[in-house]
Write a structure and sequence with these properties.
The protein is of the alpha/beta class. It has helices at 3-24, 26-41, 56-61, 77-80, 91-97, 103-108, 129-140, 151-155, 167-170, 199-220, 231-234, 236-254, and strands at 46-50, 71-74, 118-122, 144-149, 173-176, 184-186, 195-197. The strands form 2 sheets. It has a 5-stranded parallel β-sheet with strand order 2-1-3-4-5, sandwiched between helices. It has a two-stranded antiparallel ribbon with strand order 6-7.
Length: 260
Amino acid sequence: MDSKAAALAYMDAAQKITDAIRATQMDKIEAAAQVCADSIGQGGLAHLFGTGHSRIPVEEIFPRHGSFPGFHPIIDLSLTFHTQVVGANGQRQAMLIEKMEGLGEAILRNFVFRTYDCFLIFSNSGVNNVIMEVALGAKARGMKVISVVSMEHCLATAARHKSGLRLPDVSDITIDNCTPSGDALVKLDGLDYPVGPGSTIGYALIVNALKVAVAQKLTAMGQPPLVLTSGVLIGSEESATLFERTYDDYRERVKKVYGG
């Protein structure tokens, strides 16, 4: 296999993830979209949380072009700041911290939640303590929990939380990102380990499909969202005005979460 064939092998594997999500997860995505639309439509929030590289889908939902207020990203840099790799704020520390007991609840105590909010949690493995504590804490506060995991990877990984539970065990809705266990997709001759992670493909597809479905539901409810839109589409002046309106809308939605 040459390098071009290797790259195409990754694309083929990524397409399999896309096809699997389309074939098996649409009912789950539809159910999750209804939960999010119900929360946002009541003036609540769909909170978002992920650690490690599972911060990527959190940022993919909001804020970026084609997204809208109602989603509330929660990212803790101690768990997600990966570009240092070694040294201060290095990967070793982050991987250790996400296994700590008590940190998930400490994160949640910084916010004010309402029972008509909902919580989306992203974790490819679905087993680390911080993720489990956030999920259990959200449930204890009366919120519905939606998780996005690799079911194959999750079930192949030993539970780490003292309850013996994994993230799908405590979620109201679990969406499978359809990535194989181990995440990496391509095996190459002469290389002992597979390369090319796939969870980002699954995450991005799921969260954008979810986002579009939520927008449709809110619009049908008579609450069309303010969508961050590029000046290429609507002109720079209108785009800038829309950005300000969108950020103002977001500020109004989240200020109660911070005790405002």
